Amino acid sequence: MIKLSKFPFKTEKVAPKISDNKSTSLLLQAGLIRQTMAGVYTYTTLWLKILKKIEKIVREEMDKYWAFEILMPALSPKEVWDKTWRWDSIDVFFHVPATNNKEYGLNSTHEEIVTPLMKEFVQSYKDLPTCVYQIQNKFRNEKRAKSWILRWREFLMKDAYSFHASDEDFVNYYEWMKKVYMKIFERIWLLDDTVIALADGWTFTDKYSHEFQVKLSIWEDTIYICKNCGTAHNEEIIDKEKFKCINCWWINAEVVSASEIWNIFPLETKFTKAFDVKYLDENGKQQIPIMGCYGIWVSRAMWIVAEKFATDKWISWPENIAPADYYIVVLWDNLKKAEELAKKIEDNWKEVILDDRMGKKFGFGTKMKDAELLGIPHIVIISDKTIEKWWYELDGELISF
Amino acid sequence: MIKLSKFPFKTEKVAPKISDNKSTSLLLQAGLIRQTMAGVYTYTTLWLKILKKIEKIVREEMDKYWAFEILMPALSPKEVWDKTWRWDSIDVFFHVPATNNKEYGLNSTHEEIVTPLMKEFVQSYKDLPTCVYQIQNKFRNEKRAKSWILRWREFLMKDAYSFHASDEDFVNYYEWMKKVYMKIFERIWLLDDTVIALADGWTFTDKYSHEFQVKLSIWEDTIYICKNCGTAHNEEIIDKEKFKCINCWWINAEVVSASEIWNIFPLETKFTKAFDVKYLDENGKQQIPIMGCYGIWVSRAMWIVAEKFATDKWISWPENIAPADYYIVVLWDNLKKAEELAKKIEDNWKEVILDDRMGKKFGFGTKMKDAELLGIPHIVIISDKTIEKWWYELDGELISF
User: Fold this and answer.
1) How far, in Å, CA of A381 to CA of A397, rounded?
2) Contact at 8 Å (CB) between B163 and B128?
3) Three-state SS at B192
4) CB within 8 A of A29, min separation 6: which ones?
């Protein structure tokens, strides 16, 4: 239970003006986030609660399909990046000078850490397929942090890495992971607005990668959706002057702006070769495993959920990721009764924000405004009027205690 | 449920030799950890489960006393460190070169981030006292990572920061936090071996700080415990040639080796002054809040628990932080029955490792050895012998299904 009388992160009367999106100014007004520097944020208590709920959804869906959670570090030795020539080729990679004339990497991705790790555990065809994932911060030395939502310098990512004995097995897993991702999207309420777009392979692969793009008014990417077969293309892989669908060669496309949250890459044997990962197949012959990687920008996904459910005045959090389930507005001298009710709600595994702030400044209007600004799904009002009839008000209806 | 037939992190037959402590070689043998570079580790699935359980204990005890969890970033702008002159004075501080000729800090502590954050929310005496905490990685540019357990370059810390209107209020809170810490120590089984030692204030304060030192054969600190009054002193604050107790002036001390896991510092107004934090007191006069900070090295604490409960052959995890509650050894063709039992155990909110590995290599001896190496509190055996009587064996006793 959070009692607002003791809670430090107070709301502001007026939303600060942020030009390029609706949610950020509401999040600032509600005291949920603060900027530490451009592209780097501090999360206060309620924002962190939402993050943990989204993390939990991601974990549950990944764990279901035998992906095992691990935790790799943020720092890494230069030597592993030298093996794949990515120390200098990843343009946003932070190089950290250290004692003894060393330099460490501050990881923007983790292939160079996970591959030598799994080399030790993948030795036989019986060890395949296998998949590990982590929820860990990533760092990017961005030239310019863009708006409040895009191009962060530090953000939380779920990244998974799978290892396979055959191309066929990899392709099955890759297609299957798209379904896992769609399920995660569904649970965080982004499914309706998502398209899977073909995109460039970046430093990972020469093949196409797949991006999960959420259609949004704040965007970084432009997506061309084929009007014939529906295949979506990141503009980076097409000729913008003369669109031609990669799948069906149709020449008309719908153009939408979108924001990338998830991406998945076929890595083939790029990393397993670089780190000399080998397994013995059924005939006792050495083979090189095939890899895939699967990312979710957890902290960006959260912000995009906020943007999607933002009105001009509040963010209506969906029940399963809201920072609390109930907001109890306590008026006058009815705190004891309110605490009893809060306790009862908590006994049913629901979370409560108890607005027990007292004094002239905290009348009905102020408390209701904060309840709405925070966007908690259910609002309870307990006042002399409701109490005298042994009632409380829940979402506008009178209910007996 | 973790099924070992699908689990990548296999145990090794022989423990690798690590010279300076018992636990590390067992953790490596059990596949729980791997070194990414000196002082920087990767946690595999089961180690991460232990970490999450310890985190949960820390959270529960902190939340009870109205400390609010937040999450500050790992990166910070140089400007905030310039205000306290600590950019150069913290010798282990990583400076990260960034685009546009900037440098960021890779935080080894968070006073310079939390103080400007709370400046905005601490405005009146009514906002005090208040306390926020986070569980976040810290980074230290150590010259030499010492053993496997000490002087890490990246580790997880719980750090809390409290703000007060008076010295008296601060002192009460500080003493009270010692009790919260002792409660946490109790729940992670380190209470018996802990002393609270007076120590140097480092770059934080001219007063003494307090360290929670666990007596241990692998250590970094030497503690002098007064034989008269029991006051513990870190050797850094005494004259080692001529010990004199700071409390009672006695001259005889017991000397013990110990490892620091927790420390708490009175920060007085050092940081609130630097960031010009002010609040209005009851008379409408501007005052400067007093701060305290309270750290727990979560990842070190976890390792020290491992060391404490390590025998030569396994680590006996206490029930509340073990990576699983039950380890089911399945022999011969009894997997279905074992899965039913595992399901039943999980329905009671307990966690299961199901050793369903089949084939010649995975006989009774191999499975029992792994069960013991992993140190899971309860071992269940299901074999033809037990099944024919509708029994299974739990911790050596036969129990009917």
Assistant:
1) 10
2) yes
3) helix
4) A11, A12, A14, A15, A16, A373
Q: How close does chain A come to B362, measured CA to CA in Å?
A: 14
Question: Between chains, do B130 and A37 touch, taking CB under 8 Å as contact?
Answer: no
The structure tokens 């009514």 sit at B126
| Chain B contact present for A95, CB below 8 A | yes
| pLDDT at residue number B228 | 93
The pTM of the full predicted model, rounded to 2 decimals, is 0.94
Tokens linked to A220: 């970084």
**Best of A37, A59, A81, A126 to mutate (most B CBs within 10 Å, chain B):** A37
- Contact residues for B185 (Cβ-Cβ < 8 A; gap 6+): B191, B194, B212, B262
**Predicted local distance difference test score (pLDDT) of residue A389:** 81
Nearest to B223 by CA among B247, B204, B197, B203: B197
Residue A193 to chain B, least CA–CA distance (Å): 29
- CA–CA separation, B66 vs A7, rounded Å? 8
How high is the ipTM of this complex?
A: 0.94
pLDDT of B145: 80
| Interface test with chain A among B35, B56, B71, B126, by most A beta carbons within 10 Å | B71
Digitized pLDDT (tens) for each residue of chain B, 401 residues in all: 999 999 999 999 998 887 678 899 999 999 999 999 999 999 999 999 999 999 999 999 999 988 999 999 999 999 999 999 999 999 999 999 999 999 999 999 999 999 999 999 999 999 999 999 999 999 999 998 877 777 899 999 999 999 999 999 999 999 999 999 999 999 999 988 888 999 887 777 777 888 888 888 777 889 999 999 999 999 999 998 999 999 899 999 999 988 888 888 899 999 999 999 999 999 999 999 999 999 999 998 998 899 999 998 999 999 999 999 999 999 988 899 999 999 999 999 999 999 999 998 999 999 999 999 999 999 999 998 888 888 888 998 888 88
Neighbours of B113 (CB within 10 A): 28
Preceding peptide of A266 cis, ω within 30°: no
Distance from CA of B101 to the nearest CA of A (A): 10
Amino acid at A301: A
B94 touches chain A (CB under 8 A): yes
Strand, helix or coil at B88? helix
Structure token pair of residue A103: 């330099």
Q: What angle do CA A344, A7, B63 make, to 5 degrees?
A: 65
Contact with chain B for residue A74, Cβ under 8 A: yes
What rounded mean pLDDT belongs to chain A?
93
Instruction: Return d(Cα B103, Cα A226) in angstroms, integer.
Output: 45
Residue type, B128: L
Q: Which two tokens stand for residue A325?
A: 């389930």
Q: What is the 3-state secondary structure (H, E, C) of chain A?
A: CEECCCCCCCCCCCCCCCCCCCHHHHHHHCCCEEEEECCEEEECHHHHHHHHHHHHHHHHHHHHCCEEECECCCEEEHHHHHHCCHHHHCCCCEEEEECCCEEEEECCCCHHHHHHHHHCCCCEHHHCCEEEEEEEEEECCCCCCECCCECCCEEEEEEEEEEECCHHHHHHHHHHHHHHHHHHHHHCCCHHHEEEEEECCCCCCCCCEEEEEEECCCCCEEEEEECCCCCEEEHHHCCCCCCCCCCCCCCCEEEEEEEEEEEEEEEECHHHHHCCCCEECCCCCEECCEEEEEEEEHHHHHHHHHHHCECCCCECCCCCCCCCCEEEEECCCCHHHHHHHHHHHHHCCCCEEEECCCCCCCCHHHHHHHHHHHCCCEEEEECHHHHCCCEEEECCEEEEC
